[in-house]
Amino acid sequence: MVDFDVDLFVLGAGSGGTRAARIAAGHGAKVAVAEEFRTGGTCVVRGCVPKKIMVIASRFHDAFDDAAGYGWTLKTRPEFSWPTLVAAKDKEIARLSELYAKNLERSGVTQYASRAVLEDEHTVRLADGKAVRAKNILIATGGHPVAPHIPGAELAISSNEAFDLKELPRRILIVGGGYIALEFACLFDRLGAEVTLVHRGEKILRGFDEDLRDELMLALAAQGITLKMNNTVARIEKAADDCRKVTYVSGDDDEFDVVFFATGRAPNTSGLCLEKAGVHLRENGAVKVDAASRTNVPHIFAVGDVTDRVNLTPVAIREGHALADTVFGGKEWTADHSLVATAVFTTPEIGTLGITEQQAREDLRPIDIYKSRFRSLKHTMTRRQERTYMKLVVDAKSDKVLGVHILGEDAGEMIQLAAVAVGMGATKADFDRTVAVHPSAAEELVTMRDKIHVPNPGGAI
């Protein structure tokens, strides 16, 4: 008989790890968690939550400006304080982190404020030398930002540091074309910084619907964000007044107060000694798992960004919940990665679900495309020319809605509800017979009638 100290030891107290720990403990398992930074993980501490707080703060810029169109007169010019926002954000993050820790405590989970590594396939070693024998082990250590290997890269910041800058930069260069780069570009722009975004590709948001990519680029440019496409940074040097001189691969240069790399993230597996347990990794360092989040070692699992599957907080939570139910609750199920709605909290924001038009064409299936581009009622009374864009991708044979793509205010809220319908297999006819809520932007999702039929999906868009 082998004696174990715990039934489950979790490395990492982020969204996926804490969910797995709490559910497992609820099933009667003896559980321990180790976290070397702050309970809550990337999402709570330096990801989704603080970023959304700053996005909301930035949108007051538009609200103050829009108010004039509705009869409001601001007697004094609104003033923004970056230190006040950062302090308020820190207070809320501390509250949430403490809440996560208390929930683990209430669930009976033992918590270690320590880094943990594997010593063998059943032994976890803490930073103070303490060894814990675990019947099962869960790797839930998340990911971290990565920077390109160029001269002066150490002079730039990542999303980790962006939340805690001492002051709002006057001029900021954001490097990247993914959702993190774009969200920060929009929020810094509205908070008062001069924003330049440089991206090596021709378009932003690779993998998103082409029309969404085009529409968002037009919106960003209209807001005054400088877009440098088909370009990137070759080197960074110190300049006068603690500024950063940036030289692009195109040969031209410029100076900024802050250079911000948003050029991707990598799994946190380095230094965990996973090789001592024989755990297999993918080429990019991600833990290799099956659909049940199990590694090649039967009692070692991994969930969340460390597996580099669908790197979204709600997905990590479902993976952790499914794992705990399956291993400790006698309820076997797996997280479904096939139809995941997501939002990009740019301004205007994006909500997207299912396949894109390009993907449907590459799959060689006949499709019907429905599009709508309009100025919402709200902005008929304001000075902004912002447009809302919506698109449905429909299977021409079955009439099932395969994709929903939205750009505009509250797109993230709309796509969440659309995901319920599409997940249940809704057809375009189901959308059509749904009575519209009027006047609303969302009603366009059930009133679009003009279609573009694509009988030869192999053709170009």
Provide a brief overview of the structure.
With 461 residues, the protein is of the alpha/beta class.
Instruction: Kindly provide the name of the CATH class of the largest domain.
Output: Alpha Beta
Specify the helix fraction band: 25-40%
The CATH homologous superfamily of the largest domain corresponds to FAD/NAD(P)-binding domain
C-alpha geometry: globular
Number of continuous helical runs: 11
β-strand amount = 15-25%
Residue-averaged pLDDT, rounded? 95
Key terms:
461 residues, alpha/beta, FAD/NAD(P)-binding domain, Enolase-like, domain 1, 3 domains, 7-stranded mixed β-sheet, 6-stranded antiparallel β-sheet, globular
Helix-strand blueprint:
Layout: E1 6-11, H1 15-26, E2 31-34, H2 41-46, H3 48-67, H4 82-106, E3 110-112, E4 116-120, E5 123-126, E6 131-139, E7 143-145, H5 159-162, E8 171-175, H6 179-191, E9 194-199, H7 210-223, E10 226-229, E11 233-238, E12 244-248, E13 253-256, E14 258-261, E15 265-267, E16 300-302, H8 313-328, E17 342-344, E18 350-354, H9 357-362, E19 367-374, E20 388-395, E21 401-407, H10 411-423, H11 428-432, E22 451-454
